[in-house]
Amino acid sequence: MPEVIPIGADHAGYELKRRLVEELRALGYEPLDLGTSGPESTDYPDYAHQVASRVEHQDARRGVLLCGTGLGMSYAANRHHGVRAAVAWTPEIARLAREHNDANVLILPARFLSEAEGVEILKTWLDTEFAGGRHSRRVAKIDQEQG
Questions:
Q1: Sign of the dihedral through C-alpha 92, 94, 95, 101
Q2: Higher pLDDT residue, 13 or 146?
Q3: Which of 11, 49, 57, 67 is an active site residue?
Q4: Confidence class of residue 139 from pLDDT cuts 50, 70 and 90?
Q5: HSE of 71, CA atoms in CB hemisphere, 13 A
Q6: Residue ranges per structural domain of the chain
Q7: From CA 109, how far away is CA 95, in angstroms rounded?
Q8: Which of 39, 87, 141, 146 minimizes the number of CB atoms within 10 Å of its CB?
Q9: Active site residue 100
Q10: Is the dihedral of CA 6, 83, 91, 1 positive or negative?
Q11: Average pLDDT over all residues of the chain
């Protein structure tokens, strides 16, 4: 059974999201498109919370979000327990986000990427495993309560 990957975008990420849904299918994943369904103005938290909630509740192992800069999506998604949402603007950033930080939500700044760049970043992120080791200790500290 293919891995289900929830994906969501606001209006700024709508076009690139459509391309990434196609790419996910071509790569053998089952994309779960949570919107938006058109280029009309929308509110990014609506999509960030839907995708991040599925990762938080372990209904999905990973998710993908897109908005203009990626920042708004990251603010909203990272409010969910256990979600490590990373904005990646190059394949190397995507690789390091997975390898060192076990990023389980990829966020793409759609207004600053070409379609080809977005696809390459997605592929790199999907293909990179968490390195573990010393990074496991650091990732565990992310969810520790601070007093």
A1: positive
A2: 13
A3: 67
A4: very high
A5: 3
A6: 4-142
A7: 16
A8: 146
A9: yes
A10: negative
A11: 97
Closest CA to 67 of 48, 90, 91: 48
Determine the Cα–Cα distance for residues 106 and 98; give it in Å rounded to an integer.
9
Q: Is 80 exceeded by the pLDDT of residue 49?
A: yes
SS3 of residue 13 by DSSP:
helix
Q: Residues near 121 by Cβ (< 8 Å), separated by ≥ 6?
A: 88, 89, 90, 91, 93, 94, 106, 108, 113
5-31: pLDDT as tens digits:
999 999 999 999 999 999 999 999 999
**Cα distance between residue 83 and residue 106, in whole Å:** 10
Q: Which tokens hold the place of 144?
A: 């520790």
pLDDT of residue 144: 85
Distance CA 25, CA 82 (A): 26
> Can you give the pTM of this predicted structure?
0.97
In CATH, what number does 4-142 get?
3.40.1400.10
